[in-house]
Amino acid sequence: MQDLTFRKIKSSSIVEQIIDALTNAIINGQLKPGDKIPTETELMELLGVGRNSIREAIKMLISYGVLEIRRAEGTFVKQGFSGIMLNPLLYGVILSSSGSSQLALMELRELIEIGLMKLAKQKLTPDSQEELIRQYHFLAESFEEKPFSVQAVFQADNLFHETISSVCQSPIIDSMNTTVRKLTEKLRLDTVTRIIREGKQEEFKAAHRELLNYLIAEETVYDIDRIVRQSYLYDMETI
User: Fold this and answer.
1) Where in the chain is the domain with CATH 1.10.10.10?
2) How far is Cα 187 from Cα 130, in angstroms, rounded to an integer?
3) For each of the chain's 239 residues, which pLDDT tens digit applies?
4) CATH architecture label of 85-238
5) CA 211 – CA 117 distance, rounded (Å)
6) Minimal CA–CA distance to 67: which of 47, 84, 50, 53?
7) Fewer CB within 10 Å, N side or C side of the chain?
8) What are phi and psi of 92, to 5 degrees?
9) Number of C-alpha atoms within 13 angstroms, CB side, residue 222?
10) Where does the record place the HTH gntR-type domain (predicted)?
11) Which of the 8 DSSP states describes residue 66?
């Protein structure tokens, strides 16, 4: 049996506590990516719980992308990050449709984007700069398309922000950003629709131009916190 230490589980939420125990073992380094976890029998002894609860907890951790089963070998801690790990967050927000949860999600998105912009500026290359400029012009030109399409503008906006995220070259950041943008998709589409209806296309383009200018400027002369928060006022007005 591996040299693991667990506290006996006593309360009613047994499966959740098994998940917490295994997750904490991974976080504190007792179990590392690629390690085989204890067998069901060993976990029953370590945690003082039944086999069915152990199996249910392992199934859930597999569905979260934390564990994987290798045939004829056992159950192992998965190596590397997978976007599926963010699914519990996705489902939790989907099932909570209150205005306060939307506001909290927008605040999270704002914080992520500020950090993402700062990292993207550090990692910007001549090629990625050229692609960002191309995506900005694609967004600006989407307002002139005939016949005009709100959906086309929305997709161009998504491509612009996805390109910024890709500049960071971080699968974890990219997955987090994609998940949060997916959760706010309806709100963002409603915002784009409202901006166009109110004739604020030039303001919308100017806000994105400021984001681009921050990234491509040789010196940091732009206040990115202010720029991002200013652009998020459009979404806040839609909530």
Assistant:
1) 14-80
2) 29
3) 456 766 666 555 899 899 999 989 988 889 999 999 999 999 999 999 999 999 999 999 998 888 999 998 999 999 876 666 666 666 666 566 555 677 777 888 888 899 999 999 999 999 999 999 999 999 999 998 888 899 999 999 999 999 999 999 988 888 888 888 888 898 899 999 999 999 999 999 999 999 999 999 987 677 899 989 888 877 877 77
4) Up-down Bundle (1.20)
5) 8
6) 84
7) N
8) -60, -40
9) 21
10) 12-80
11) S
Alpha-carbon separation of residue 128 from 115, 172, 217, 238 (angstroms): 18, 19, 14, 32
Topology at the third CATH level for domain 14-80: Arc Repressor Mutant, subunit A (1.10.10)
Q: Which two tokens stand for residue 239?
A: 């909530």
